[in-house]
Design a protein that fits this description.
The chain has 105 residues and is mainly alpha-helical. It has one domain (29-102). The chain contains five helices and two strands. The chain has helices spanning 2-22, 31-36, 40-53, 67-82, 85-102; strands spanning 55-57, 60-62. A two-stranded antiparallel ribbon has the order 1-2. The relative contact order is 0.07.
């Protein structure tokens, strides 16, 4: 049962990558398909980021002593102000390092 699931997933993954490059479908995408691609990074990265920012210990979510959440909020503010990914990552990481090393909440 497990091997059949692995083989089916492998075939589906292969077909997803092979069909667009093979010429079976047209090279030009419809405008609605192109428009929907802009939501993919948001849909993929949001659960990863939220999972990383929350800390669970003994089935408890820590909000007040969690430096990652504060650094994430600072990063969101920087992202809205600067619209620059390098500044967002740099200031977010610097704020996390500063808070985790020098501030006792």
């Amino acid at each position: 049962m497990i091997w059949s699931g692995i083989i089916i997933c492998g075939v589906i993954t292969f077909l997803i990558r092979f069909i667009p490059m093979s010429g079976i479908i047209s090279k030009e995408l419809s405008p609605s398909a192109k428009n929907s691609f802009k939501y993919i990074p948001l849909a993929v990265l949001t659960p990863i980021i939220i999972n990383d920012l929350s800390i669970f210990e003994n089935n408890t979510l820590f909000l007040f002593k969690n430096y990652k959440i504060y650094a994430g909020l600072i990063s969101i503010i920087v992202a809205f102000i600067t619209n620059n990914i390098l500044a967002t990552i740099s200031i977010g990481m610097a704020s996390y390092i500063f808070m985790s090393n020098f501030i006792n909440i």
